[in-house]
Amino acid sequence: MLTMQLTWRILVVTIAFGAASAIGWWALPIAAAVFGAITHRDRGGPLVAGIGGMLSWAVILVYDAARGPVGTVAATLGGVLQIKPIAVYVLTLSFAGLLAVCSAIVARSVARSVARVFVPEKA
């Protein structure tokens, strides 16, 4: 069960990742890395990043579907890859989620290492 705080957090991250993705697909892992570094103390940070990445790209796909022939593109790309068109959507959203999770995990690890070096431990 999602708490209201987690729901709002995912919503804000989704909006931020969607705005970043409007610049280009490569902005998603950069935004996820920034989020991962900021939330390096939270256990669920990378998971929130992954969900936010997938939801942001899902919104972009829905928006594009309302404006143009996304189904035709999925069918054509699916034919080239020899997969069903629905798999194109699943792969697209999986790619976004994995980019976000991996970027957040790497940035979280770097931020934790930097924090250990520059922040003295409490006695």
Describe this structure in words.
The chain is elongated and about 60 Å long. 30% of the residues are buried. 82% of the residues lie in helices and 0% in strands. The chain has 5 helices and no strands. The mean pLDDT is 89. It has one domain (9-117).
**Shape assignment:** elongated
The sequence of SSEs as H and E is HHHHH
User: Structurally, how many domains make up the residues?
Assistant: 1
Residue fraction in strands: under 5%
Query: Kindly state the mean pLDDT as a whole number?
Result: 89
Structural class: mainly alpha
Distance between the termini: 37 Å
Number of strands: 0
Percent in helix: over 70%
How many helical stretches? 5
User: Low-confidence runs (pLDDT<50, min 5 residues)?
Assistant: none
Rg is: 17 Å
Short descriptors:
123 residues; mainly alpha; 82% helix; elongated
How are the SSEs placed, and which strands pair?
Blueprint: H1 4-23, H2 27-38, H3 45-67, H4 70-81, H5 85-118
Summed up, what is this model?
This protein is mostly helical. The chain is built from 5 helices and no strands. Helix 1 (4-23) packs antiparallel against helix 2, helix 2 (27-38) packs parallel to helix 5 and helix 3 runs antiparallel to helix 5.
